[in-house]
Fold this protein.
Amino acid sequence: EVQLVQSGAEVKKPGESLKISCKGSGYSFIDYWIGWVRQMPGKGLEWMGIIYPGDSDTRYSPSFQGQVTISADKSISTAYLEWSSLKASDTAMYYCARRTARFYDSIGYYSFDYWGQGTLVTVSS
Amino acid sequence: DIQMTQSPSSLSASVGGRVIITCRASQSISGYLNWYVQKPGKAPKLLIYGASSLHSGVPSRFRGSGSGTDFTLTISSLQPQDFATYYCQQSNSFPETFGQGTKVEIK
């Protein structure tokens, strides 16, 4: 069974650093992209970026480039989302998700087919 | 970035009724369109990928269609468990942006 298990909720102060995790199991972790999605309170889904654990190829949304760092440790099947200096506006639920390709006529259609349970990050002084 | 615009933002429907949600891309995305459903306090779940292919285990009352810039999600015979928020997402190019969501409520 494919599972993505995220680390627990965090309460931090502005300016602090944070690294949250997403551990994959039930599939070959290095063969699928992992994505991170932000959901601010009462708002919609925002695509932050993705990483391919096999070679650490990483793509960021311009909105999040330079604001966060996405990484992965394939030896423990875990992806990470990291902040060096949190802001109150980083308060949100963060989801990781597995990005899967399905091929039809040699065309790959990508989607997030499995999701973690979410990690709530609260940044408040 | 490609902008994804869903309409309506919210709607009310009855159990057993039919719901149509539209999603428009700011430029052509061919068939690279996914639909997700999210219930309060839960992670999103994939419903449809490639504009019209049902994800494993998704009931056949869900149907996706469209290509280019205009897409629809149709839910026929709405069930109580279908009252939730629905999001479209394009996977044509990075960043793979989401629509703003459509909340389906009970009439």
In short: Chain B has a mean pLDDT of 96. The beta strands of chain B are 4-7, 10-13, 19-25, 33-38, 45-49, 53-54, 62-67, 70-75, 85-90, 102-106.
